[in-house]
Amino acid sequence: MYSINNMDMKSDVLVIGAGIVGLAHALAFAKRGKNVTVVDRDSRAVGASVRNFGMVWPIGQPAGKLLNRALISRQIWADIANETQIFNDSVGSICLAYEEDELALLQEFYELHQNSAYKLEWVSPDNLKEYSKAAKSEGFLGGLFSATELIVDPREAIAKIPQYLNDKYGVEFLWNRPIQKVESGKAWSADFCFEAEHILVCTGADFEVLYPEVYSKTSITKCKLQMMRTLPQPNDWRLGPAISGGLTLLHYQAFQECKSLLPLKERVQKQMPYYVKYGIHVMASQNGLGEIIIGDSHEYAQTHDPFNREHINEKILSYFHKMVEPVEARISEHWQGIYAKMTDGATEFVYHPEAGVTIVNGLGGAGMTLSFGLAEETVPEVLEQKEPIII
């Protein structure tokens, strides 16, 4: 079935999957002088990597290893953006408090980290408009600005990075090549046998196709999100910093250390059970076209129905408009995304099912924020192994 005649290809490294995780690892190997081939089942990346805010979001990562990883990713994103001229906006982010428990949590986080790598600044009702002309002043109690966040357009970036990797490092991309089987040193599509010293499986929510026995034993699930974007804002109106609200404080791991989190969580559960049920937390960013990307929700299951729930979008927009009133509020697109997420508290899944093969998956909704930094950790470890890694 997998015998290929005169259709073999060889490289030092084969990366399966051209989403952000695959691209990040291809770059990390190529920078270290390796000959890299990337294969993808589609004619371009169309998965979770192009269905997100485009936020590189260090503020959501806990201080220490993950924050450092996010900041390394941010620097790599900035370097690539400068070389390729893809849209990038180092506007930072602002989290807005309109309730007392939200304010208390933001104040506690600020006191813990005001002189840290998060680069925090306190925002008061008196100086809100100095940070964000888009945020609503009515009912605003206080906020937290972070200078670390970078915005890119994921659709543009994920489409252009392959050409950048090819031009600068000679990384070869083969599209429309679904990989059917992987074993140590080899991978097969319908018409090619790929040989490589190192094979990286970076196929997102679909990696169980190649390693079903690994997937079945893994603490991993799939998250479905719903998002939308407005029409372009007129007259060059800009959102400014990426915006989030109190619900976001419940979602990101960085804020879990705060004692003030519990009262907020209890109130939201009591007053807004719908938002808890569908994992809704509301954020917004703006791309280079002037469109505002708004989201999102989180539903966890192994299999999701393919239909958006309009009532979820309505709840997201209702919360969004309590914080922001853009000039152009009409929605031009709705979509959903599916990504893999660990359920055991792990922030990623890096696994070696056989010699020379590494699965990298399970970054949750933080692929844009963490992938480049994770690759800078994973690739040296793979290259430094003197003996095959088999777990």
Structure in words:
- It is a single chain.
- 32% of the residues lie in helices and 26% in strands.
- The chain has 391 residues and is α+β, with helices and mostly antiparallel strands.
- It folds into two domains: 8-49 and 155-218 and 346-384, FAD/NAD(P)-binding domain; 93-147 and 220-342, D-Amino Acid Oxidase, subunit A, domain 2 (D-Amino Acid Oxidase, Chain A, domain 2, 2-Layer Sandwich), CATH 3.30.9.
- Strands 5, 6, 7, 13, 14, 15, 16, 17 and 18 form a nine-stranded mixed β-sheet that branches.
- The longest helix is centred in the first third of the chain and has 20 residues, at 65-84.
Shape summary:
globular
CATH architect. name of the largest domain: 2-Layer Sandwich
The CATH homologous superfamily of the largest domain is named: D-Amino Acid Oxidase, subunit A, domain 2
Q: Please give the radius of gyration in angstroms.
A: 21 Å
Give the uncertain stretches in residue-range form. Answer: 1-6, 387-391
Examine the coordinates and then state which fold CATH places here, giving the name of the CATH topology of the largest domain.
D-Amino Acid Oxidase, Chain A, domain 2
Mean pLDDT: 94
Largest sheet: 9 strands, mixed
Strand content: 25-35%
Number of helices: 11
How many β strands by DSSP?
Answer: 20
